[in-house]
Protein backbone atom coordinates (compact mmCIF):
# COMPACT_ATOMS: atom_id res chain seq x y z
CA UNK A 1 0.00 0.00 0.00
CA UNK A 2 1.19 3.46 -0.84
CA UNK A 3 1.13 5.97 1.97
CA UNK A 4 0.26 9.63 1.61
CA UNK A 5 2.56 12.51 2.41
CA UNK A 6 3.02 13.13 6.10
CA UNK A 7 0.40 15.27 7.84
CA UNK A 8 0.01 16.42 11.42
CA UNK A 9 -2.50 18.25 13.58
CA UNK A 10 -3.67 18.72 17.14
CA UNK A 11 -6.33 16.04 17.58
CA UNK A 12 -7.75 17.22 20.90
CA UNK A 13 -9.80 20.38 21.59
CA UNK A 14 -7.86 23.65 21.75
CA UNK A 15 -7.71 24.63 25.37
CA UNK A 16 -6.36 23.37 28.65
CA UNK A 17 -6.71 19.69 29.40
CA UNK A 18 -4.99 16.85 31.20
CA UNK A 19 -3.49 15.64 27.96
CA UNK A 20 -3.42 16.89 24.40
CA UNK A 21 -2.69 14.74 21.38
CA UNK A 22 -0.73 15.52 18.23
CA UNK A 23 -1.52 13.10 15.46
CA UNK A 24 0.98 12.40 12.70
CA UNK A 25 0.11 10.18 9.73
CA UNK A 26 1.74 9.19 6.47
CA UNK A 27 4.83 7.88 4.82
CA UNK A 28 7.30 9.55 7.18
CA UNK A 29 5.23 9.63 10.34
CA UNK A 30 7.84 7.78 12.39
CA UNK A 31 10.81 9.68 11.01
CA UNK A 32 9.01 12.95 11.68
CA UNK A 33 8.10 11.92 15.23
CA UNK A 34 11.67 10.82 15.88
CA UNK A 35 12.88 14.36 15.19
CA UNK A 36 10.63 15.89 17.84
CA UNK A 37 10.40 13.05 20.37
CA UNK A 38 13.28 11.63 22.41
CA UNK A 39 12.51 8.31 24.07
CA UNK A 40 13.71 7.77 27.60
CA UNK A 41 15.21 4.43 26.57
CA UNK A 42 17.18 6.18 23.83
CA UNK A 43 15.71 4.06 21.03
CA UNK A 44 14.13 5.71 17.98
CA UNK A 45 10.41 5.08 17.40
CA UNK A 46 11.25 3.37 14.13
CA UNK A 47 12.50 0.51 16.33
CA UNK A 48 9.64 0.55 18.81
CA UNK A 49 7.28 -1.81 17.00
CA UNK A 50 3.58 -1.32 16.35
CA UNK A 51 0.97 -0.51 18.99
CA UNK A 52 3.50 0.45 21.58
CA UNK A 53 3.51 3.38 23.93
CA UNK A 54 6.94 4.89 24.43
CA UNK A 55 7.75 7.31 27.24
CA UNK A 56 9.96 10.31 26.55
CA UNK A 57 10.17 14.03 25.87
CA UNK A 58 9.30 16.49 23.14
CA UNK A 59 12.48 18.33 22.21
CA UNK A 60 13.15 21.25 19.88
CA UNK A 61 15.88 21.48 17.20
CA UNK A 62 18.41 22.49 19.80
CA UNK A 63 17.53 19.50 21.97
CA UNK A 64 15.72 21.64 24.55
CA UNK A 65 12.90 19.83 26.35
CA UNK A 66 9.45 21.28 25.54
CA UNK A 67 7.23 18.75 27.28
CA UNK A 68 7.01 15.29 28.72
CA UNK A 69 5.11 12.94 26.43
CA UNK A 70 4.01 9.46 25.49
CA UNK A 71 4.41 8.38 21.85
CA UNK A 72 1.93 5.85 20.49
CA UNK A 73 3.19 4.05 17.41
CA UNK A 74 0.67 2.40 15.07
CA UNK A 75 2.11 0.93 11.91
CA UNK A 76 0.24 0.59 8.61
CA UNK A 77 -2.22 -0.91 7.98
CA UNK A 78 -3.42 -1.16 11.59
CA UNK A 79 -4.18 2.47 12.31
CA UNK A 80 -6.98 5.00 11.97
CA UNK A 81 -5.75 6.15 8.56
CA UNK A 82 -4.36 2.75 7.51
CA UNK A 83 -0.99 4.54 7.24
CA UNK A 84 1.86 4.75 9.72
CA UNK A 85 0.59 6.86 12.59
CA UNK A 86 2.27 8.32 15.64
CA UNK A 87 0.20 10.02 18.30
CA UNK A 88 2.10 12.18 20.73
CA UNK A 89 0.32 12.51 24.04
CA UNK A 90 1.58 15.74 25.52
CA UNK A 91 0.28 17.83 28.38
CA UNK A 92 -2.89 19.56 27.31
CA UNK A 93 -1.67 23.13 27.17
CA UNK A 94 -2.16 25.47 24.25
CA UNK A 95 1.52 26.49 24.14
CA UNK A 96 3.02 23.03 24.37
CA UNK A 97 0.70 21.64 21.72
CA UNK A 98 1.26 24.50 19.27
CA UNK A 99 4.99 24.37 19.79
CA UNK A 100 5.08 20.59 19.31
CA UNK A 101 2.90 20.84 16.22
CA UNK A 102 5.21 23.45 14.73
CA UNK A 103 8.17 21.17 15.39
CA UNK A 104 6.48 18.34 13.46
CA UNK A 105 6.12 20.74 10.52
CA UNK A 106 9.79 21.67 10.70
CA UNK A 107 10.52 17.94 10.82
CA UNK A 108 8.81 17.35 7.48
CA UNK A 109 5.07 17.03 8.09
CA UNK A 110 2.56 19.48 6.68
CA UNK A 111 -0.59 20.79 8.38
CA UNK A 112 -3.49 18.37 7.97
CA UNK A 113 -6.59 19.67 6.26
CA UNK A 114 -10.04 19.41 7.83
CA UNK A 115 -11.06 15.79 8.15
CA UNK A 116 -7.94 14.64 6.33
CA UNK A 117 -7.20 11.75 8.70
CA UNK A 118 -10.71 10.37 8.27
CA UNK A 119 -10.55 11.05 4.53
CA UNK A 120 -7.44 8.88 4.34
CA UNK A 121 -9.26 6.13 6.25
CA UNK A 122 -11.96 6.38 3.58
CA UNK A 123 -9.59 6.55 0.60
CA UNK A 124 -7.68 3.58 2.00
CA UNK A 125 -10.90 1.59 2.22
CA UNK A 126 -11.13 1.20 6.00
CA UNK A 127 -14.35 3.24 6.20
CA UNK A 128 -16.91 3.78 3.48
CA UNK A 129 -18.37 7.23 2.97
CA UNK A 130 -21.40 6.80 5.21
CA UNK A 131 -19.18 5.35 7.94
CA UNK A 132 -16.76 8.25 7.63
CA UNK A 133 -19.64 10.70 7.94
CA UNK A 134 -20.73 8.86 11.06
CA UNK A 135 -17.39 9.72 12.72
CA UNK A 136 -18.48 13.36 12.72
CA UNK A 137 -21.92 12.46 14.00
CA UNK A 138 -20.41 10.52 16.89
CA UNK A 139 -18.33 13.52 17.89
CA UNK A 140 -21.33 15.81 17.73
CA UNK A 141 -23.92 13.48 19.29
CA UNK A 142 -25.81 15.17 22.10
CA UNK A 143 -28.00 12.37 23.40
CA UNK A 144 -27.42 8.69 23.92
CA UNK A 145 -29.97 7.86 21.21
CA UNK A 146 -28.10 10.10 18.75
CA UNK A 147 -24.85 8.42 19.72
CA UNK A 148 -26.31 4.95 19.27
CA UNK A 149 -27.50 5.93 15.82
CA UNK A 150 -24.13 7.37 14.78
CA UNK A 151 -22.25 4.40 16.21
CA UNK A 152 -24.56 2.10 14.25
CA UNK A 153 -23.57 3.95 11.09
CA UNK A 154 -19.89 3.77 11.93
CA UNK A 155 -20.05 0.04 12.45
CA UNK A 156 -21.66 -0.34 9.06
CA UNK A 157 -25.38 -0.98 9.70
CA UNK A 158 -26.42 1.54 7.09
CA UNK A 159 -23.65 0.54 4.68
CA UNK A 160 -24.61 -3.10 4.92
CA UNK A 161 -28.17 -2.34 3.93
CA UNK A 162 -27.02 -0.28 0.98
CA UNK A 163 -24.47 -2.89 -0.02
CA UNK A 164 -27.03 -5.66 0.09
CA UNK A 165 -29.30 -3.61 -2.20
CA UNK A 166 -26.44 -2.96 -4.60
CA UNK A 167 -25.55 -6.63 -4.54
CA UNK A 168 -29.13 -7.56 -5.46
CA UNK A 169 -29.26 -5.02 -8.27
CA UNK A 170 -25.94 -6.21 -9.63
CA UNK A 171 -27.19 -9.79 -9.54
CA UNK A 172 -30.15 -8.79 -11.71
CA UNK A 173 -27.88 -6.99 -14.15
CA UNK A 174 -25.73 -10.12 -14.40
CA UNK A 175 -28.78 -12.27 -15.13
CA UNK A 176 -29.95 -9.87 -17.80
CA UNK A 177 -26.55 -9.83 -19.44
CA UNK A 178 -26.44 -13.61 -19.47
CA UNK A 179 -29.90 -13.68 -21.03
CA UNK A 180 -28.86 -11.19 -23.67
CA UNK A 181 -25.97 -13.45 -24.62
CA UNK A 182 -28.21 -16.52 -24.82
CA UNK A 183 -31.59 -15.25 -25.99
CA UNK A 184 -34.65 -17.42 -25.41
CA UNK A 185 -38.07 -15.86 -25.32
CA UNK A 186 -39.70 -17.80 -22.51
CA UNK A 187 -36.64 -17.39 -20.31
CA UNK A 188 -36.90 -13.62 -20.77
CA UNK A 189 -40.45 -13.63 -19.48
CA UNK A 190 -39.53 -15.52 -16.33
CA UNK A 191 -36.54 -13.26 -15.89
CA UNK A 192 -38.47 -10.01 -16.20
CA UNK A 193 -41.09 -11.38 -13.80
CA UNK A 194 -38.36 -12.12 -11.24
CA UNK A 195 -36.71 -8.78 -11.78
CA UNK A 196 -39.93 -6.91 -11.24
CA UNK A 197 -40.49 -8.79 -7.98
CA UNK A 198 -36.94 -8.04 -6.79
CA UNK A 199 -37.15 -4.40 -7.75
CA UNK A 200 -40.38 -4.00 -5.80
CA UNK A 201 -38.67 -5.51 -2.76
CA UNK A 202 -35.72 -3.15 -3.01
CA UNK A 203 -38.04 -0.20 -3.48
CA UNK A 204 -39.82 -1.20 -0.27
CA UNK A 205 -36.52 -1.23 1.56
CA UNK A 206 -35.70 2.23 0.25
CA UNK A 207 -39.15 3.50 1.22
CA UNK A 208 -38.61 2.20 4.76
CA UNK A 209 -35.21 3.84 4.98
CA UNK A 210 -36.67 7.12 3.76
CA UNK A 211 -39.28 6.91 6.51
CA UNK A 212 -36.44 7.14 9.02
CA UNK A 213 -35.04 10.32 7.47
CA UNK A 214 -37.21 12.71 9.48
CA UNK A 215 -36.28 11.20 12.85
CA UNK A 216 -32.70 10.54 11.70
CA UNK A 217 -32.12 14.17 10.86
CA UNK A 218 -33.55 15.31 14.18
CA UNK A 219 -31.47 12.80 16.14
CA UNK A 220 -28.35 14.07 14.38
CA UNK A 221 -28.97 17.81 14.20
CA UNK A 222 -31.45 18.38 17.00
CA UNK A 223 -35.01 19.68 16.89
CA UNK A 224 -35.17 23.47 16.85
CA UNK A 225 -37.72 24.23 19.54
CA UNK A 226 -39.14 27.56 20.65
CA UNK A 227 -40.69 28.05 24.06
CA UNK A 228 -43.19 30.87 23.90
CA UNK A 229 -45.77 32.42 26.16
CA UNK A 230 -46.57 35.71 27.84
CA UNK A 231 -44.27 36.97 30.62
CA UNK A 232 -44.27 35.02 33.88
CA UNK A 233 -46.03 32.01 32.42
CA UNK A 234 -43.06 29.78 33.28
CA UNK A 235 -40.93 29.64 30.10
CA UNK A 236 -37.58 29.85 31.87
CA UNK A 237 -38.78 27.39 34.52
CA UNK A 238 -39.75 24.93 31.77
CA UNK A 239 -36.39 25.37 30.09
CA UNK A 240 -34.69 24.63 33.39
CA UNK A 241 -36.84 21.56 33.93
CA UNK A 242 -35.94 20.26 30.49
CA UNK A 243 -32.28 21.01 31.00
CA UNK A 244 -32.45 19.77 34.58
CA UNK A 245 -30.00 22.49 35.44
CA UNK A 246 -30.21 26.06 36.65
CA UNK A 247 -28.84 27.68 33.53
CA UNK A 248 -31.47 30.22 32.54
CA UNK A 249 -32.19 32.99 35.02
CA UNK A 250 -35.63 32.72 36.58
CA UNK A 251 -37.07 35.93 38.05
CA UNK A 252 -40.38 37.23 39.32
CA UNK A 253 -40.24 40.43 37.25
CA UNK A 254 -42.32 40.09 34.07
CA UNK A 255 -40.37 40.39 30.83
CA UNK A 256 -36.86 39.93 32.14
CA UNK A 257 -35.85 37.11 29.83
CA UNK A 258 -34.68 39.67 27.32
CA UNK A 259 -32.04 37.92 25.38
CA UNK A 260 -32.94 34.64 23.87
CA UNK A 261 -30.65 31.82 24.86
CA UNK A 262 -30.16 28.52 23.10
CA UNK A 263 -29.51 25.25 24.85
CA UNK A 264 -29.55 21.55 24.07
CA UNK A 265 -31.83 19.38 26.17
CA UNK A 266 -32.07 15.60 26.07
CA UNK A 267 -35.78 14.88 26.00
CA UNK A 268 -36.41 11.17 25.80
CA UNK A 269 -33.28 10.81 23.66
CA UNK A 270 -34.29 13.59 21.27
CA UNK A 271 -31.81 16.48 21.28
CA UNK A 272 -33.96 19.60 21.52
CA UNK A 273 -32.25 22.81 20.47
CA UNK A 274 -34.28 25.10 22.64
CA UNK A 275 -34.59 28.80 22.23
CA UNK A 276 -36.03 30.51 25.27
CA UNK A 277 -37.69 33.52 23.74
CA UNK A 278 -38.63 36.73 25.43
CA UNK A 279 -42.20 37.13 26.59
CA UNK A 280 -44.32 38.06 23.62
CA UNK A 281 -46.27 41.21 24.33
CA UNK A 282 -46.81 44.71 23.06
CA UNK A 283 -44.33 47.01 24.77
CA UNK A 284 -42.59 50.34 24.44
CA UNK A 285 -39.42 49.02 25.97
CA UNK A 286 -36.88 48.90 23.12
CA UNK A 287 -34.80 46.09 24.56
CA UNK A 288 -37.92 44.08 25.21
CA UNK A 289 -39.15 44.75 21.68
CA UNK A 290 -35.96 43.41 20.16
CA UNK A 291 -36.54 40.30 22.26
CA UNK A 292 -40.10 40.00 21.02
CA UNK A 293 -39.12 40.53 17.38
CA UNK A 294 -36.52 37.83 17.80
CA UNK A 295 -39.12 35.59 19.38
CA UNK A 296 -41.40 36.01 16.39
CA UNK A 297 -38.64 35.11 13.98
CA UNK A 298 -37.60 32.12 16.07
CA UNK A 299 -41.16 30.89 16.08
CA UNK A 300 -41.07 31.13 12.32
CA UNK A 301 -37.84 29.09 12.18
CA UNK A 302 -38.70 26.59 14.88
CA UNK A 303 -39.71 23.05 13.97
CA UNK A 304 -41.53 22.60 17.26
CA UNK A 305 -43.24 25.22 19.37
CA UNK A 306 -43.95 24.75 23.04
CA UNK A 307 -46.57 27.36 23.89
CA UNK A 308 -47.16 28.00 27.58
CA UNK A 309 -50.31 29.19 29.29
CA UNK A 310 -50.89 29.95 32.95
CA UNK A 311 -53.66 27.88 34.54
CA UNK A 312 -53.86 30.25 37.50
CA UNK A 313 -54.65 33.39 35.50
CA UNK A 314 -57.51 33.96 33.06
CA UNK A 315 -56.61 33.72 29.37
CA UNK A 316 -56.07 37.23 28.04
CA UNK A 317 -55.30 39.03 24.80
CA UNK A 318 -51.61 38.08 25.03
CA UNK A 319 -52.57 34.43 25.23
CA UNK A 320 -54.83 34.97 22.24
CA UNK A 321 -51.86 36.32 20.33
CA UNK A 322 -49.82 33.26 21.24
CA UNK A 323 -52.64 31.03 20.05
CA UNK A 324 -52.72 32.93 16.78
CA UNK A 325 -48.97 32.55 16.38
CA UNK A 326 -49.04 28.75 16.68
CA UNK A 327 -52.03 28.18 14.43
CA UNK A 328 -51.21 25.62 11.76
CA UNK A 329 -47.77 25.00 13.25
CA UNK A 330 -46.25 21.96 14.89
CA UNK A 331 -47.02 23.02 18.44
CA UNK A 332 -47.72 21.54 21.83
CA UNK A 333 -49.76 23.70 24.21
CA UNK A 334 -48.75 23.50 27.83
CA UNK A 335 -51.08 24.57 30.59
CA UNK A 336 -48.61 25.37 33.36
CA UNK A 337 -48.92 25.96 37.12
CA UNK A 338 -51.26 23.02 37.55
CA UNK A 339 -50.25 23.02 41.23
CA UNK A 340 -52.14 26.29 41.81
CA UNK A 341 -55.91 26.82 41.93
CA UNK A 342 -56.94 26.65 38.29
CA UNK A 343 -59.00 29.28 36.51
CA UNK A 344 -58.16 27.84 33.09
CA UNK A 345 -58.93 24.20 32.41
CA UNK A 346 -57.38 22.07 29.65
CA UNK A 347 -60.84 21.85 28.04
CA UNK A 348 -61.03 25.65 27.83
CA UNK A 349 -57.63 25.86 26.20
CA UNK A 350 -58.45 22.98 23.89
CA UNK A 351 -61.59 24.72 22.77
CA UNK A 352 -59.70 27.90 21.96
CA UNK A 353 -56.94 26.03 20.10
CA UNK A 354 -58.95 23.50 18.13
CA UNK A 355 -59.33 19.77 18.67
CA UNK A 356 -56.28 18.69 16.63
CA UNK A 357 -53.84 20.51 18.89
CA UNK A 358 -52.08 18.66 21.72
CA UNK A 359 -52.76 20.21 25.13
CA UNK A 360 -50.82 18.97 28.15
CA UNK A 361 -51.24 20.08 31.74
CA UNK A 362 -47.94 20.56 33.55
CA UNK A 363 -46.35 22.13 36.58
CA UNK A 364 -42.73 23.10 36.31
CA UNK A 365 -42.80 23.46 40.09
CA UNK A 366 -43.83 19.86 40.86
CA UNK A 367 -42.61 18.45 37.48
CA UNK A 368 -46.10 17.03 36.97
CA UNK A 369 -46.94 16.29 33.35
CA UNK A 370 -43.36 16.56 32.10
CA UNK A 371 -43.29 12.85 31.28
CA UNK A 372 -46.41 13.39 29.16
CA UNK A 373 -44.58 16.18 27.37
CA UNK A 374 -41.60 13.92 26.70
CA UNK A 375 -43.93 11.26 25.29
CA UNK A 376 -45.71 13.77 23.09
CA UNK A 377 -42.40 15.02 21.68
CA UNK A 378 -40.95 11.57 20.97
CA UNK A 379 -44.27 10.51 19.40
CA UNK A 380 -44.11 13.52 17.09
CA UNK A 381 -40.49 12.86 16.09
CA UNK A 382 -40.95 9.18 15.42
CA UNK A 383 -44.38 9.56 13.81
CA UNK A 384 -44.45 7.58 10.56
CA UNK A 385 -40.99 6.16 11.21
CA UNK A 386 -40.78 2.46 10.86
CA UNK A 387 -38.32 1.03 13.34
CA UNK A 388 -35.15 0.98 11.25
CA UNK A 389 -33.31 -2.30 10.87
CA UNK A 390 -30.87 -2.52 13.77
CA UNK A 391 -31.40 1.17 14.41
CA UNK A 392 -30.58 2.15 10.85
CA UNK A 393 -31.51 5.74 10.13
CA UNK A 394 -30.99 8.00 7.17
CA UNK A 395 -29.29 10.97 8.77
CA UNK A 396 -28.65 13.61 6.19
CA UNK A 397 -30.41 15.32 3.35
CA UNK A 398 -27.85 14.19 0.80
CA UNK A 399 -28.36 10.54 1.70
CA UNK A 400 -32.14 10.92 1.47
CA UNK A 401 -31.89 12.62 -1.91
CA UNK A 402 -29.64 9.88 -3.29
CA UNK A 403 -32.06 7.21 -2.07
CA UNK A 404 -34.94 9.02 -3.76
CA UNK A 405 -32.99 9.22 -7.03
CA UNK A 406 -32.00 5.55 -6.86
CA UNK A 407 -35.66 4.74 -6.32
CA UNK A 408 -36.60 6.74 -9.43
CA UNK A 409 -34.25 4.59 -11.52
CA UNK A 410 -35.80 1.46 -10.03
CA UNK A 411 -39.26 2.78 -10.77
CA UNK A 412 -38.14 3.46 -14.34
CA UNK A 413 -36.96 -0.14 -14.66
CA UNK A 414 -40.46 -1.34 -13.80
CA UNK A 415 -41.99 0.96 -16.39
CA UNK A 416 -39.46 -0.38 -18.89
CA UNK A 417 -40.45 -3.94 -18.08
CA UNK A 418 -44.15 -3.15 -18.34
CA UNK A 419 -43.64 -1.43 -21.68
CA UNK A 420 -41.81 -4.58 -22.90
CA UNK A 421 -38.93 -2.44 -24.07
CA UNK A 422 -36.37 -5.19 -23.90
CA UNK A 423 -33.67 -6.38 -21.56
CA UNK A 424 -31.05 -3.85 -22.65
CA UNK A 425 -33.19 -1.01 -21.44
CA UNK A 426 -33.96 -2.65 -18.09
CA UNK A 427 -30.25 -3.16 -17.62
CA UNK A 428 -29.60 0.55 -18.20
CA UNK A 429 -32.12 1.56 -15.52
CA UNK A 430 -30.75 -0.94 -13.04
CA UNK A 431 -27.20 0.16 -13.67
CA UNK A 432 -28.19 3.76 -12.95
CA UNK A 433 -29.77 2.65 -9.66
CA UNK A 434 -26.66 0.66 -8.78
CA UNK A 435 -24.42 3.65 -9.43
CA UNK A 436 -26.67 5.99 -7.45
CA UNK A 437 -26.61 3.71 -4.42
CA UNK A 438 -22.82 3.63 -4.68
CA UNK A 439 -22.77 7.36 -3.97
CA UNK A 440 -23.90 6.55 -0.44
CA UNK A 441 -20.98 4.27 0.26
CA UNK A 442 -18.65 6.46 -1.75
CA UNK A 443 -17.84 3.86 -4.39
CA UNK A 444 -19.24 5.91 -7.26
CA UNK A 445 -18.82 9.44 -6.03
CA UNK A 446 -16.73 12.26 -7.47
CA UNK A 447 -13.72 13.79 -5.77
CA UNK A 448 -15.42 17.18 -5.42
CA UNK A 449 -18.22 15.70 -3.34
CA UNK A 450 -15.78 13.77 -1.20
CA UNK A 451 -13.81 16.94 -0.59
CA UNK A 452 -16.94 18.84 0.31
CA UNK A 453 -18.04 16.23 2.82
CA UNK A 454 -14.68 16.11 4.57
CA UNK A 455 -14.30 19.89 4.57
CA UNK A 456 -17.11 19.96 7.16
CA UNK A 457 -14.95 18.00 9.59
CA UNK A 458 -12.69 19.63 12.12
CA UNK A 459 -8.94 19.77 11.80
CA UNK A 460 -7.26 16.86 13.50
CA UNK A 461 -10.12 14.47 12.75
P1 LIG B 1 -41.19 33.33 32.16
O1 LIG B 1 -41.25 34.79 32.31
O2 LIG B 1 -42.26 32.84 31.25
O3 LIG B 1 -39.83 32.84 31.75
O4 LIG B 1 -41.55 32.68 33.58
P2 LIG B 1 -40.53 32.14 34.69
O5 LIG B 1 -40.08 30.77 34.37
O6 LIG B 1 -39.50 33.17 34.96
O7 LIG B 1 -41.55 31.98 35.92
C1 LIG B 1 -42.29 33.09 36.41
C2 LIG B 1 -42.74 32.82 37.83
O8 LIG B 1 -43.69 31.71 37.85
C3 LIG B 1 -41.62 32.40 38.76
O9 LIG B 1 -41.85 32.95 40.03
C4 LIG B 1 -41.75 30.89 38.82
O10 LIG B 1 -41.27 30.37 40.03
C5 LIG B 1 -43.25 30.71 38.72
N1 LIG B 1 -43.62 29.40 38.18
C6 LIG B 1 -43.18 28.84 37.03
N2 LIG B 1 -43.74 27.63 36.85
C7 LIG B 1 -44.58 27.41 37.92
C8 LIG B 1 -45.45 26.34 38.30
O11 LIG B 1 -45.58 25.31 37.63
N3 LIG B 1 -46.15 26.50 39.45
C9 LIG B 1 -46.04 27.62 40.21
N4 LIG B 1 -46.76 27.68 41.31
N5 LIG B 1 -45.22 28.64 39.87
C10 LIG B 1 -44.50 28.55 38.74
ZN1 LIG C 1 -38.21 33.77 31.49
Automatic annotation (TrEMBL):
InterPro entries: G_TrmE, GTP-bd, GTP-bd_TrmE_N, GTPase_MnmE, MnmE_dom2, MnmE_helical, P-loop_NTPase, Small_GTP-bd. Its main location: cytoplasm. It is an enzyme of class 3 (hydrolase). K(+) binds at residues 232, 251, 253, 256. Mg(2+) binds at residues 236, 257. GO terms for molecular function: GTP binding; GTPase activity; identical protein binding; metal ion binding. (6S)-5-formyl-5,6,7,8-tetrahydrofolate binds at residues 23, 87, 126, 461. Homodimer. Heterotetramer of two MnmE and two MnmG subunits. This is tRNA modification GTPase MnmE. The gene is mnmE_1.
Amino acid sequence: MQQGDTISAIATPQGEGGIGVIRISGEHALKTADKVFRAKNGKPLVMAGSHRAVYGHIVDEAGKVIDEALALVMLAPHSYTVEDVVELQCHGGLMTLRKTLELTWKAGARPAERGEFTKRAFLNGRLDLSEAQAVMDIIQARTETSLTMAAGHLTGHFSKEIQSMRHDVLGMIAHIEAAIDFPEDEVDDILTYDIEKNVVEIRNKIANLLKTAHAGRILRDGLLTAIIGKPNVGKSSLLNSLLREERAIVTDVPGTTRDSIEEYADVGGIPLRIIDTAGIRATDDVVERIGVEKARSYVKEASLILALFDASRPLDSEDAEILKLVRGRDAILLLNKDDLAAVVTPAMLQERAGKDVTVITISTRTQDGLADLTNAITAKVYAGTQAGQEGTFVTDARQAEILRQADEHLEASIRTIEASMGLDFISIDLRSAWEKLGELTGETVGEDIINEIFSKFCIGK
